[in-house]
Amino acid sequence: MVITEKINEMVKKLPESSQAEVLDFVEFLFSKTETKSPVRENREWTNLSLSSAMRGMEEEDEPQYTSDDLKECFK
Question: Which residues make Cβ contacts (< 8 Å) with residue 19, sequence separation at least 6?
């Protein structure tokens, strides 16, 4: 018996409320595999990297530099 047939036979034996839960879970699995495209995964890594790099900076009151630090100096 093929897996889909086994699943179908078992689901038929469940009460309707449990069948609805199975459907929700199957839809969740489907959306999870569908949304893991390379573009989305790259965006997730970018967001993680940015949030890691900025960690702790949100607690800073003022910049640690002055306008003098921004002047170019040629020697």
Answer: 11
